[in-house]
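FAQ: What does the model actually see?

It sees only this:
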Amino acid sequence: MRLFQVVIVVLVSLAVTSVLGGVAPSSGEPALQVNAIRIGDTLVKLAHPIAFDSASVDDAVGRLMERYRTQGHFFVRARITGLGQSDEPPYWVLDLKLTPGPVVTVRRLIFDGLKRTDGARLRRFFTLKDGSPLTPALLADVEREARTIDYLDLNGPAGIRILPGYTEADLELPFREHRQVSFFGGGGYGPDDNTGLLWNARLTLENIFGGGRRAGIRSARPDRGRTELTVDYQQPLFWFGRDRGAVSVATRDYRESFYEFAAEAAYTTALTTTTDLTLGLGFKRVEPSGIAPGYSGYSASVGLERSTITDPLNPSGGLRIHTSLTYLARRYSSDSLLTIPGRNAFNETRTAVDIESYTSLPGPAVMHISARYRGLETGDRIPPLAELFFVGGPGSLRGYRTDQFAVQRTAYGTLEPRLRFTSAYLFVFYEGAYLNSTEAEGTLSESYRAGVGGGIAVVGEERSVRVSFGWGQGAELDGPRLAVEFSTDI
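And it is asked to produce this:
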């Protein structure tokens, strides 16, 4: 389709050049101004006169042709036949012969490059109805929907195969399947303590049985004496459109503080190609260390996310906004001798807001800005540690220990200029966080922490590596915190 449009523009340009050969003004004379275009017996008056040159006429004729393309006239053609003057009022009129051609409809979608993927199931990701007129807007929607499929990559623009008779066409989408097994790992250390090696690792099985199903296992050691383990599974559902369901079970073993078991189920539906709505239900059981009583929590959540970031590995532009609200009913064990009458049940809300943007600057520069908020509202004067938000390390404050701060409310952000290249980028960053929590005495504690740093990332479709160095407030120049993140397909 794009090649066809180029050919049409060339034909119009050649026609303008031919007409100009007979009526071009001599040197020093003002250029002719075209006030209207005549197509057969129909006179189309222009909102503003245009100069009679190739660029201006190409633009005006192209807009006229676009009206026909939006109705499915894929083979619309235009040819300039002359230039004349009207009598009342006197102005220049461009004579144009326009041939709409037949309306072309889409017969079917063809998927290229698939080996494991179920084509019939893949077809359900697209809202296109067979027999729809082939228009530029339809083609853009098909490509946009193809890019949202998270276990495939669209490997180029959609191809158009015109069928005999010139009234039907097949759309060919070239896909690249992801490897079925991928691994993500992150690790780091700090020179000022004996915490040892910290890690965050995830193994993912993708596109299981060719139906877009995904299963994963995550293991993390965010700090000394703290380990986390999560097992999750998700798959497309197509109950009310582009839907998917997910379930997960997780444990947190913070040996000196608490042990937690949690299970969650979530349902996500695509409101548009860039906006998702998520509903979730959850249960967890927390057993604090020592003599503190254990409790159970029952949660319901709603989340909304909109993203226009098309290249998550090395973005050059786009905006992502995510917000969620979770209601949690926390109930202490009734048989515990330490349960305080009237203080054994709490209804709480948890709020999360994430905003991040990428803006192209002159040259290869890109500005990455992010702002995040986490808040817990509860009637409990001093919430248990398992309900607080942990701040520090990659993802929040890279100049500090992972999960160094446990707070009830926090707002933190990043300012990160980048020098972006084809498969890599250099970056420096400034990060700051407002921390709000309640001390054991019941007094409110507020503080601000900041950090600076920089690093390099090398990214690719199958593997990537990101290395950063961060300094928190008061850190020595020769004592940065190192963080390394890498991912690879297996």
